[in-house]
Amino acid sequence: MMLDWTEWLGYIASVVVAVSLTMTNIKRLRWINLLGAVAFTVYGALLQVYPVLVVNGFIVGVNIYYLIRIALTKDHFHLIPISWDTSIFLPRFIEFYLQDIRKHFPDVNVEGLRQYRSILITRNVVPVGLFIYERQEHGIVQIHLDYEIPMYRDYESARYFFREFREIVQKKGFHTYVAYCNVPVHQRYLRRMKFTEDPGEPGRFVRKM
Question: What is the pLDDT of residue 73?
Fold first, then answer.
């Protein structure tokens, strides 16, 4: 039996709402859930199913309210240098998120990271990211780990980091970031952060500060 377009609208709305519930980023969840609720509201209005219309109209309002709050809330970021030798928190942070870290850095060697410099990124006093890097010759900063926790993976922490960290290292003569990555999801992140892949060396990404 052929489905009419209103039935398709109902199915699409259901899928969109279901997809929204898989989002770990709250802002993205709200936006996708809003789209699904709008679709259900239209669906309920067309079929005159008033419980569906009322409930989803309410959900639309709730999502809009919280999206406005998110837009108006000013986040406070900080970069905190952190040492493997003195910090109890740093190894615990990596241990807790190691499974997720390996999705983006499958070859990560935790013990090997100890020899490099580490910076913790906080957002409203919540530790949301970890940047581990090595200062090399010729003004290069090589990135060994650039990780954000799933709930705050909206690029805001990363943008803050690259903007503020540049001010720190440029004074010391550094001018280029280098990162090595063969994981598609992290490659997309690097491109979003204005890295470009070296045409002569696939998997090597470069960004000028």
Answer: 83
